[in-house]
Amino acid sequence: MKKGIVLASTILVLILLFSGCSSAPKIVKVEKPKPVVVVEEKPKPPEIKNLDLEERSSVKSQKIISVDKIQFVYNSRGKLANGQKLSIIKYNPDGFMTSAVFYTKDGKVDQKYEYKYDNKGFRTETVRYDSKGQPDKKYIYEYNKYGNKIRASRYNNNGELEKYYLYKYDDKGNLTEDLWYDKGGVLEFKIITTYDSNGDKIESLSYDSSDNLVSKSIYKYDENDNIIEENRFDNDGNSTGVIQYVYKFSK
After folding, report:
1. How many structural domains comprise the chain?
2. Which residues constitute the domain of residue 141?
3. With CB atoms 3.0 to 4.6 Å apart as the test, which of 1, 30, 51, 229 could cross-link to 220 if both were Cys?
4. CA-CA distance, 162 to 160, in Å (whole number)?
């Protein structure tokens, strides 16, 4: 009996060995590595801000209703004195500038500006009033695709063009050049403005028609990014005074 079991086991082992040896080798397909495609990401174009929208959003969120500009000049002792109110700008609850009034040295109204807008929020027209409250000038605007004005044209009461203003911006939408022309296209005045990395205006340089420096302004801000002070200098760098910005808020 034991011999039979051993014999059967031997036969089974032999069968397994021969069957394993006689089986055909397996063919393994090796796939060629796919080429690696490197896609270079194009840098995103800078966001171009809309200056009017930015101002309205800030004014509305802070509930600003008006801004007074008060000028202080240096007296013979080199101290600031004689605070004079230069202007007041008023806003509605949605942050739109509605009017601006400018004053003479004796505190009387010199000029007043009233602003009109279309249903998309673009300023379409400004009417200027003289010291007697009579309209004497009108301004019409043109805009670029980002909603920033690129031209303002001034007309008299007869509808005749008197002057026009061109506005240039950097690649972030900051107003960098403010160019004033007579009706014949002769440059009369220009303002060049520089900004910091946050987009805050830090310096403005004013030039006459001969490209001579007339004045310089340097700006200071509060914690809400509102201009609170403008230091002014003549073409020789001498300080000529300070303009303070006084904000009034609704409750």
Report:
1. 1
2. 51-249
3. 229
4. 6
Note whether residue 214 is domain-resident: yes
- pLDDT tens profile 166-210: 999 999 999 999 999 999 999 999 999 999 999 999 999 999 999
Question: Which tokens go with 237?
Answer: 């760098």
Q: Residue 219: is its pLDDT beyond 90?
A: yes
CA-atom Rg of the chain in angstroms: 37
What is the rounded distance in angstroms from the CA atom of residue 168 to the CA atom of residue 165?
10
- How far is the C-alpha of 82 from the C-alpha of 67, rounded, in Å? 19
Sign of CA dihedral 113, 48, 207, 197: positive
Q: Which residues contact 68 (CB under 8 A, 6 or more apart)?
A: 85, 87, 88, 245, 246, 248
In a domain, 230, yes or no: yes
Structural domain includes residue 17: no
User: Which residues face 162 on adjacent strands?
Assistant: none
247: left (phi over 0), alpha (psi -120 to 50) or beta: beta
Sign (positive/negative) of CA torsion 176, 57, 232, 186?
A: positive
Give the closest residue to 121 by CA, choosing from 100, 94, 154, 151.
94
CATH number at residue 183: 2.40.160
CB 86 within 8 A of CB 72: no
Q: Is residue 30 part of a domain?
A: no
